[in-house]
């Protein structure tokens, strides 16, 4: 029998419309921590890396509506870099982020719009990121690119990063409640 707390949670990928990809993953952490992991550069650099062998030497986040973000990844084996960025269009603290995404060397046409929502229930957070592309052809090309394995690896790293933070937060809250 497997302990539910240690079993691997699968990334779910769906296509809610002809131009969208939705990725859903549940994390064993409060949404406040998950939101921080998506918006604080010191945390983003630890998990948003794709397949093994990549680092993120540049991670800039200006978290405000109209603010920009910029990520640059580097493959350690050959020094190849891949950069991208976008603009925040909507921010609801701990609940929702809407931003654009555009790669420096476009591997798909146009700019995408990403809406990420966080819903907490019982100390677990369901994250759903929906990417809307300029056309169905672009969406289908992204689906065929193999991006799923890199995204799944990043979200597995995020789960590993969140686990000790969530335990620490839980202990802190228990101490506070016991002192009253």
How many domains make up the coordinates?
1
What structural class do the secondary elements suggest?
Answer: alpha+beta
Kindly state the number of beta strands: 8
Helix content: 25-40%
Quick structural overview:
The protein has 180 residues and is α+β, with helices and mostly antiparallel strands. It contains four helices and eight strands, in the order ββααββββββαα.
Write up what this structure looks like.
The chain is α+β, with helices and mostly antiparallel strands. Helix content is 32%, strand content 37%. It has 4 helices and 8 strands. It has helices spanning 31-39, 41-47, 136-144, 147-178, and strands at residues 12-14, 20-27, 54-61, 68-75, 81-92, 96-103, 112-121, 124-132. It has an 8-stranded antiparallel β-sheet. Strand 3 (54-61) and strand 4 (68-75) form a beta hairpin.
Give me some keywords for this one.
globular; alpha+beta; 8-stranded antiparallel β-sheet; Alpha-D-Glucose-1,6-Bisphosphate, Chain A, domain 4; 180 residues
Helix/strand layout:
Blueprint lengths: L11 E3 L5 E8 L3 H9 L1 H7 L6 E8 L6 E8 L5 E12 L3 E8 L8 E10 L2 E9 L3 H9 L2 H32 L2
Antiparallel strand pairs: 1-2, 2-8, 3-4, 4-5, 5-6, 6-7, 7-8
């Amino acid at each position: 029998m497997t302990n539910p707390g240690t079993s691997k949670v699968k990334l779910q990928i769906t296509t809610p419309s002809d131009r969208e990809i939705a990725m859903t993953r549940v994390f064993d952490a409060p949404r406040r921590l998950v939101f921080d992991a998506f918006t604080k550069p010191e945390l983003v650099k630890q998990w948003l890396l794709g397949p093994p062998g990549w680092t993120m030497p540049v991670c800039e986040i200006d978290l405000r509506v109209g603010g920009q973000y910029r990520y640059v990844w580097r493959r350690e084996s050959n020094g190849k870099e891949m950069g991208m960025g976008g603009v925040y269009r909507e921010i609801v603290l701990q609940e929702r982020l809407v931003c654009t995404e555009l790669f420096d060397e476009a591997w798909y046409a146009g700019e995408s719009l990403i809406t990420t929502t966080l819903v907490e229930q019982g100390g677990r957070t369901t994250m759903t990121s929906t990417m809307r592309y300029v056309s169905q052809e672009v969406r289908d090309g992204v689906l065929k690119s193999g991006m799923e394995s890199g995204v799944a690896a990043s979200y597995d790293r995020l789960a590993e990063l969140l686990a000790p933070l969530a335990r620490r937060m839980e202990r802190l809250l228990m101490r506070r409640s016991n002192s009253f």
